[in-house]
TrEMBL record:
It comes from Cladorrhinum samala. This is RmlC-like cupin domain-containing protein. Keywords: Manganese, Metal-binding, Signal. InterPro entries: Bicupin_oxalate_deCO2ase/Oxase, Cupin_1, GPI/OXD, RmlC-like_jellyroll, RmlC_Cupin_sf. Residues 152-295, 334-475 form the Cupin type-1 domain.
Length: 501
């Protein structure tokens, strides 16, 4: 198509879309992101409006230190914050590390117990309200633990091609350098939309979040695999095996986890590009087709695009060779949604690892629910980094790294967390609804070391010599892993003489 034709088509399409698409009209821009306003940096807005250029771009040498007169600092701009607002628990001992709910403070102050000071400077309060443990860290945080969180809300979203077909946003080492072993993608497919037939060098593990898709895959033995995957189900596509994903009429959203930290959605092999990047004479010879059979192949990659509805009857899309189809323990999907969770006081957990889903050789996952006030106990994983995704609610994680550093991060739905191998951590529900999150390990079996169980199975004398804990505490240590523990729903109760649990 000529450029002019393209342009005319685009104009016509835009016209048609604005006429048919019932999107609300954009509101006038309102600068209300919870940011502070001046004076700041010696500028006192609003600046006077000039009708013509005036003044100069630079000052002169009379302003150099030593030349310039010095006014009395007492008469200068004040950095005192008048009437700072504080929230429940903010005055308590910083070592308690209470969860501070900054939502009621406009603006919140980075003070915890005796740590910190009021903040008169430039900032956007909404970030601080979402990240109270970065803004006013627990007094126990120390050292130089790297950043270990990435909200998908900060990812650059890639739109599908065609009209409203879907999108994908990703977390990888480009945005979270510490996450070297795994990367994640949050992908949306509109009704009947496809993720184009493709393959990649990483292994892919996926959890359906919403809706339903059909997945189709062919392996190197010439065996095919087709299945329908529902919310809560999982698939695993080994590196190099070509596959496609198509949404049914309700559309879909799913989470992809790859075993390469630098995986990028923009770096996959695509069937459209494979055809565009080979000589047509070779395609003709390879597929025994006349050259003009390739006249209508896409002129650009499809990526995520709208498709024709898949037949409900899965048998209609089940093509097999003499090698047959992949079945039984080789299956590339697991209908995890139908597995009942293991329930404990404070929440529930279900595990999916190669013991029950053998094809996903090194992917071990736990889907955990933690009730308000409760925690996923302090633990670590012996040999694998952990990739987290928060599906619902709010929670926080403190990561302890050898020998003497720790840092606390706050998470909300859509957030990715990362915990290096062997680093101690917990996940505490800091919200008012159930917290649901996913732990993914690169391990042949899901396992962890529970601090409470470790100490319970260590001779009392040894524990006492090390930690000087009262006998009553040591005697009460659980010999079985609690996994999750209940807690006081009031996370600042300790500040008023209450209890943490
Ligand atoms: C596809 O067909 C094969 C037989 O060729 C069968 O074993 C397999 O179960 C079928 N798969 C589905 C999803 O119907
Ligand atoms: C599903 O499709 C298969 C293969 O085309 C056909 O044999 C079968 O009768 C269909 N089943 C239903 C319920 O329509
Ligand atoms: C939580 O406990 C603190 C300290 O006792 C108390 O001041 C606060 O009102 C409590 N919050 C709620 C929601 O009960």
């Amino acid at each position: 198509m000529h450029q002019l034709q393209k342009l005319l088509l685009a104009v016509a399409l835009a016209h048609w879309q604005s006429a048919t698409l019932a999107l609300p009209r954009p509101l006038p821009q309102i600068a209300d992101f919870g940011e502070n306003s001046g004076p700041v940096g010696g500028v006192a807005p609003p600046v006077p409006t000039a009708t013509a250029a005036r003044g100069g771009l630079r000052g002169d040498s009379s302003l150099l230190g030593g030349n310039a007169p010095l006014p009395d600092p007492a008469n200068s701009d004040s950095a005192v914050v008048p009437d700072p607002q504080f929230v429940n628990g903010q005055g308590a001992d910083a070592k308690l590390g209470l969860y501070l709910d900054f939502n009621s403070a406009d603006p919140p102050q980075p003070i915890r117990g005796e740590n910190g000071a009021t903040n008169p400077g430039p900032r956007t309060y909404n970030y601080e309200k979402l990240n109270p443990d970065l803004y006013a860290p627990p007094g126990t945080d120390a050292g130089d633990m790297p950043n270990l969180m990435w909200p998908m809300g900060l990812s650059h979203n890639r739109a599908g091609t065609g009209r409203n077909s879907g999108f994908a946003r990703q977390q990888n080492t480009a945005v979270l350098p510490a996450a070297v072993a795994m990367a994640g993608v949050d992908m949306r497919l509109a009704p009947h939309a496809y993720r184009e037939l493709h393959w990649h060098t990483a292994n892919e593990w996926a959890l359906m979040l919403k809706g339903c898709v059909r997945v189709i895959l062919v392996d190197d033995e010439g065996r095919s695999f087709v299945d329908d995957v529902y919310a809560g189900d999982v698939w695993f596509f080994p590196a190099g095996l070509p596959h496609s994903i198509q949404a049914f009429e309700e559309g879909a959203e799913f989470l992809l986890v790859f075993d390469q930290g630098d995986f990028t959605e923009d770096g996959t092999f695509l069937v459209s590009e494979l055809f565009l990047r080979n000589p047509v004479s070779v395609l003709s010879k390879d597929l025994r087709a006349p050259v003009d059979a390739f006249n209508d192949i896409p002129k650009d990659q499809l990526y995520i695009f709208n498709g024709t509805p898949a037949p409900k009857n899965i048998s209609e899309q089940n093509a097999t060779s003499s090698a047959g189809s992949v079945t039984g323990s080789g299956s590339f999907t697991y209908h995890w949604s139908r597995q009942k969770p293991f329930e404990v006081p404070g929440g529930s957990v279900k595990i999916l690892d190669p013991l029950t889903f053998p094809v996903a050789k090194m992917f071990s996952a736990a889907l955990v629910t933690v009730q308000p006030g409760a925690i996923r106990e302090v633990h670590w994983h012996t040999s694998s980094d952990e990739w987290n995704f928060f599906l619902q609610g709010a929670g926080r994680i403190t990561v302890y790294g050898a020998p003497a550093s720790s840092r606390t991060f706050d998470f909300t739905a859509g957030g990715v967390g990362y915990v290096p191998a062997a680093a101690g951590h917990y996940v505490e529900n800091t919200g008012t609804e159930d917290l649901i999150f996913l732990e993914v390990l690169q391990a042949s079996k899901f396992s962890d070391i529970s601090v409470a169980q470790w100490l319970a199975l260590t001779p009392k004398q040894v524990v006492k010599d090390h930690l000087h804990l009262p006998d009553s505490v040591i005697d009460g240590l659980p010999r079985e892993k609690p996994i999750i523990l209940t807690g006081n729903k009031n996370l600042t109760a300790l500040a008023g003489g209450g209890s943490a649990f």
